[in-house]
Amino acid sequence: MAAEPQDNTPEPSIAELIAARSHLRMHAMDGLVMEDVPLARIAASAGTPTWAYSAGALRARYNTLAGALRDAGLDAHCHYAVKANDHLAILSLLGKEGAGADVVSEGELLRARAAGIPASRIVYSGVGKSERELRLALSEDIGQINVESAEELRMLSAIATSMGRTARIAPRVNPDVDAGTHEKISTGRARDKFGIPYSEAVALYAEAAGLPGIEPVGLATHIGSQIMDLAPYRAAFAKIADLVRLLRGLGHKVRVVDCGGGLGIPYRNQPGPGPAALAGTIKAAFHNMDVQIALEPGRWLVGPAGVLLASVVLGKQAPGARFVVLDAAMNDLVRPAMYDAWHGIVPVSATDAVAPVSPADVVGPICESGDTFARERLLPDLAPGALVAILDAGAYGSVMSSPYNARPRAAEVLVDGAVWTVIRPRQTHAALWADEVVPG
Ligand code: LLP
Q: Mutation test of ligand 1: which of 62, 94, 173, 296 has the most ligand atoms closer than 8 Å to its C-beta?
């Protein structure tokens, strides 16, 4: 399997990883501190593994992104991609900052509503929305449904008509652009399952304009995730801008362009585009077109704001390898196992953080070799009970966890200044089988 393309950039040191994350700092006595709360204090009280998120970082990141769009002079709305981290506390915090939501299932739609995000600020994406899900979207009268096939468009028209509703839709166009990211999270190539083929977009828009219960409001695209280069965005937006001109030339109204999500984050402190550069690219593609811009950012908003706190169970020496075995595992954070993803791992103790380092494989206790967080990572000797923080775990972390190996779901904590709150207690073992039925 191809590793994430940034894998050949140099590996940052523990000090460099901490220095690049403004909500984290190393305190000589308290160790690694998130905002004003020592992570060791959270671990002592909530146990490990535990996810800890910085509310300050979440707010700052949302405002940086929204500010970059504003500074570029764009009329833009952010719909947070709920899939990245769907905890109600996160949704509600981002909603209060002004974010709408990009949802892909009935569950995500209900979560966004439960967190207080207005229906008018919700966009529904996804390649396989069921009839029941489309009904819910219509009965909630959400802002926009991104349609991914002619089949879905016709089904939606029939449902909307039967309900006496009008669906505001945007065809999600597959621009046939390679986002240059990991194979499993590329979505904008012609062979990917997503979106309407570029060559069919004009005909589909025209069909939509004529269908009862359907109001086409614009176009959408989303080419992939963890994108660290602007070139694929530029290529995709140019193709979408061409479509806008073509459709308007044919007399269609195109009010909105939804540019999707995908903005990558520097897991390895590597250089990459930030919100200002993305805003500039959007501006360059759509300036003077009088379109309202929508974005669906997930990872960029929440990824760097979270860590997974874990304890060392033991160190193990094998011929040719040193293993650090943690109490966190691939069932908690699956990204390294699933995408060969690189996450920074830093000791929580200030003494550990400056001790001499040597290569170690950082692994979990699950019975699979894939249960490996890092290979040959430069880390100090870590005694049983020592704490580490796995960085940039706020996105696609807790949401992708599973109870594999009968491991309960880890606790989650939100840090806000000097205050921290358990926003999800650790699942109990009994809860693992509470809804199981043994026949007879
Ligand atoms: N919009 C649509 C239609 C999407 O499918 C996605 C992500 C997003 C927005 C948000 O993308 P973001 O800004 O977060 O890159 N589990 C993988 C990532 C899967 C992304 C799926 N779609 C990972 O851990 O890398």
A: 296
